[in-house]
Design brief:
The chain has helices at about 20-50, 55-75, 80-85, 85-95, 100-115, 125-135, 165-170, 175-190. By secondary structure, it is an all-alpha fold. Helix 4 (about 85-95) runs parallel beside helix 6 and helix 5 (about 100-115) runs antiparallel to helix 6. The longest helix is centred in the N-terminal third of the chain and has 27 residues, at about 20-50. It is globular. The N and C termini lie far apart (about 45 Å).
Length: about 190
């Protein structure tokens, strides 16, 4: 389990982090997007061809992506929207959400919270990783972004009566609308 060091508030890299120069930022952005695209491709293959080797390849891909992301974060801090652009920062979040390392997720959650508070990445990024970590720790989530794939209901939510206010604060619509769209999508996929 890798744990990302805590960095001072307002500084996504912290002590010892190398500055993100433009050429490095472009290369890093390309690598993050490439890795996230590769994972998406393997996820589709695993879903569409469950008998093939895709699940094993996906597991290996996620582990390698997590290792690469951990290295980036140790060296340069969280890859914020300001540093690497919106597509690459979102790709980093997707890699993090699928990483098999809760320690990495927890460390990055704190870095993303600081970056979002400083306006360096969307608050929505923090909402997704905060809910993910809460569910993985068996705690109620804050924004209702994690849904049980079997019941199509959100995992437990802290103070459900005010969840839509919290969701609005980070740019999400009402939870009931999200759940209705999810159910409609599932029914469309199942063909009923």
């Amino acid at each position: 389990m890798s744990v990302v060091p805590r960095h001072p508030a307002g500084h996504p890299g912290g002590p010892g982090a190398a500055p993100m120069v433009p050429g490095l930022a472009r290369a890093l952005a390309g690598e993050l997007v490439r890795r996230a695209d590769e994972e998406r491709h393997l996820m589709r293959q695993a879903r569409d061809r469950p008998a093939g080797p895709w699940r094993g390849l996906l597991t290996v891909c996620r582990a390698r992506n997590a290792e690469a992301l951990a290295t980036v974060v140790r060296r340069h801090g969280w890859p914020t929207t300001e540093a690497v652009g919106a597509p690459a920062s979102t790709a980093a979040l997707m890699i993090l959400l699928h990483a098999p390392d809760l320690g990495l997720q927890l460390g990055c959650r704190d870095l993303i919270a600081r970056a979002a508070a400083d306006g360096l990445c969307p608050a929505l990024h923090h909402a997704y990783i905060a809910d993910h970590c809460a569910v993985e720790l068996g705690l109620p989530q804050f924004y209702g972004t994690r849904v049980d794939p079997v019941t199509l209901r959100p995992y437990p939510v802290r103070r459900p009566g005010t969840v839509d206010e919290r969701r609005r604060d980070v740019g999400l619509g009402p939870l009931d609308e999200q759940l209705r769209r999810l159910r409609d999508d599932v029914w469309d996929v199942r063909g009923t």
